[in-house]
Design goal:
Length: 262
């Protein structure tokens, strides 16, 4: 009996946090991983961690690239095909936060947020889908946030960027049905990563009293979503409560958010 070849996953934002944990989790189960981020030293650290996994792990291909640059993503996909010969799974995870009022924010910060969280996801998908089609299936995971439907004063640009990618996931799912490519929208809640430290903008407050989960927990959820071809996942009961309250009581939730973020 011939064994099917290992699957290949391409993950953006793999140099820290959720992307790093997801890359390790895929490699641990034997999937080859093309890991994208700008910080090459962090990707080298990830490669060492993958090589230290027990036998049977997948290989890691570190690819220094910027998701705001479509040419760099096309090159990264090409390098993935040259190394592994196929592409099955894409995790569009790279992202950045922003706090502060829209009217007073530096345009350069808002532009970085939009180019990374919106254009970066579009460039990733547009570079990857043509490479996924020949295998006759596959899976795209979009890392969004429970803030996607939040009335979010002082986190408005971030929340709107996640509304964009969640909406994209919903529509794209039907566009890609003919290619047998599944799409999962991951609505992530507060996770312990470098996200808050690296956030752009003047507002430095971080929501108080919100439970935090580990990036490994999110990575597990992503692997499970791919295994079961899920459409939308929300990982914790607390986060389901937030999504539900955001849609039923947008005014109240918006006022609570303003107290947290202003
Ligand atoms: N942490 C949370 O509480 C939370 C909650 C909801 C949703 N999320 C979402 O989860 C995703 C991952 O965030 P995280 O929490 O893991 O934060 P993180 O630790 O700061 O990781 C962000 C990753 O994105 C990469 N990145 C940023 N800009 C990039 C660019 N232009 N090109 C390539 N890579 C870029 C960073 O790598 P380089 O800087 O090396 O390029 C890094 O690997 C984001 O989409 C975020 O919105 C996080």
């Amino acid at each position: 009996m011939t064994q099917s070849p290992p699957q290949v996953a391409l993950i953006t934002g793999a140099s820290s946090g959720i992307g790093y944990a997801t890359a390790l989790a895929f490699a641990r189960q034997g999937t080859h991983v093309a890991a994208i981020a700008r910080r090459a030293d962090r990707l080298a650290e990830l490669e060492r961690a993958v090589n230290a996994l027990p036998p049977g792990h997948g290989d890691l291909l570190p690819l220094a690239a910027d998701v705001t640059r479509p040419d760099e993503l096309h090159r990264a996909v090409q390098q993935t095909l040259e190394r592994f010969g196929r592409l099955d799974i894409v995790v569009a995870n790279a992202g950045i936060g922003h706090r502060g009022s829209i009217a007073d924010a530096d345009w350069s910060d808002l532009e970085t947020l939009l180019r990374t969280n919106i254009d970066g996801v579009l460039h990733t998908i547009r570079a990857a889908v043509p490479a996924m089609r020949p295998t006759g299936g596959g899976h795209i995971v979009i890392v969004s946030s429970v803030a996607f439907n939040l009335t979010a004063p002082y986190a408005a640009a971030y929340s709107a960027s996640k509304a964009f990618v969640s909406s994209l996931a919903r529509s794209m799912r039907l566009e890609l049905e003919a290619d047998h490519i599944a799409v999962t929208d991951v609505l992530v809640g507060r996770t312990h990563t470098e996200f808050n430290e690296r956030r752009l903008g003047a507002g430095k407050r971080t929501g108080q009293g919100v439970p935090t989960m580990s990036p490994d927990r999110v990575a597990e959820g992503i692997l499970d979503a791919v295994r079961h071809r899920r459409s939308v996942i929300v990982l914790r009961f607390f986060d389901r409560l937030i999504v539900w309250a955001n849609s039923l009581f947008p005014g109240i939730m918006g006022r609570l958010a303003r107290r947290q973020y202003q």
